[in-house]
Amino acid sequence: MPQSIAVKFDNGPKLHYMELNAETPPAIGSRAVLNTRRGLEMGTVRTEPKEHAKPIGHFVREATSEDLESYDSLKTRAEELKWLLKARSRGLAKDLKIIATEFNLEGTLLVVSYSSEAQVPLRQMASDLMPHTDARIEFVNVGPRDQARMLGTLGVCGDGSCSSRFLQTFSAVGIRMARDQQLPLNPEKISGPCGRLMCCLQYEHEMYEELLRDLPRKGMLACHKEHGTCGRVIKLSPLKQTVDILTADGSIHEFPARELEVQRGGRQEADYE
Description:
By secondary structure, the protein is α+β, with helices and mostly antiparallel strands. It folds into four domains: 3-63, no CATH class; 67-142, K homology (KH) domain (GMP Synthetase, Chain A, domain 3, 2-Layer Sandwich), CATH 3.30.300.20; 152-207, no CATH class; 221-262. It has seven helices and 14 strands. A five-stranded mixed barrel has the order 1-2-6-3-4.
């Protein structure tokens, strides 16, 4: 199994492993020239050498001052072409967004990341770029979470979004996770900047599942073990391990779950299953 180093490209936090053939490994945090399927690319070294079964490229050298100067120049040029393409592509597709444009380090490949659910006339977009670059043009349609990763958005917590800071993969996030955490099922409250359910809903879900095991479910009939107050369960507080019940006279009482006894035949609401 080859010795590899993990590197991070500038368009997101994901680590990519590169086979290392050099006798002296590059320092963590240093800029490196890498050979991938796109040609030569610039990345930042993030780990010490380790064995990895499937590296996606090779470490070529630590970046020289000429490499860094060339990279900055190509990055500026790619940004200019992005704005050119944004202006030329207006009206081509209803929801078309140009997310990013990136040259490889040799300037022979231009990758255009865009977003659209409708069919996009890529030939026309390519013809708009051809007078301004000799590079081969590759178009990539990216999803909402990848857009957040590439653009570097802010989350509702006030910090950078998880996808743009550290997430390596996008796990499935379901509405059940929000229900289990007793969050309001308001899309504006539980959606991230990408418009999808927040990735952070999954981080504490396992703990909430554990806490909910000892609580009665919403809609069940429960009675206090000592003074016999009975009612339907209308609210759960997993962290406090308490339950709110609604009695027949319309009053609401909060009790520790351990002090309640669920009555057999109590109805269970469908919104918590």
